[in-house]
Amino acid sequence: MNFIEGEVSNGHFLSREISLKLPETKYSELSKPRICLGIRPEHLHINRTPENSSLPAMVYVTELMGNETFVFLTVGQNRLIARAPADFRADQEEKVWLSFMMDKVHLFDADSELRIDS
Question: Any bridge partners for residue 64, and if so which?
Fold first, then answer.
């Protein structure tokens, strides 16, 4: 799972380089100042062109796994892993855009590391 430290403010998850609108069910009763957002590699989508609310990311390595490709990315200081189709190819330091499946994110207390969303 990918983990990104940040905070929730006005219904958005915020870190230095990332701002994501959270589904209301994820933040409606949230009262922790520091949280960690977790998302699995299969819940990140890589696009070659910008799409609505996608984030720019840089590829630093791809790993062909046969039936899928793991794509290792940087978004600012964050290192993330996404799963892509087997035929996905990208060069090192190629710019791509990353979309999060927001209904699949999990929120954790940054201090206790306990899950705080339902």
Answer: 69
**Integer angstrom CA distances of residue 10 from 20, 26, 46, 64:** 11, 12, 27, 39
Please tell me whether residue 25 adopts helix, strand or coil conformation.
helix
Short-list 20, 22, 21, CA closest to 116? 22
Per residue in 74-91, pLDDT (tens digit) is 999 999 999 999 999 999
Decide: helix, strand or coil at residue 27: helix
CA gap 9, 22 in Å, rounded? 10
Task: Note the pTM of the prediction, 2 decimals.
Answer: 0.88
Domains of the chain and any CATH numbers: 2-109 (2.40.50.140)
**Cα–Cα distance, 38 to 107 (Å, whole number):** 6
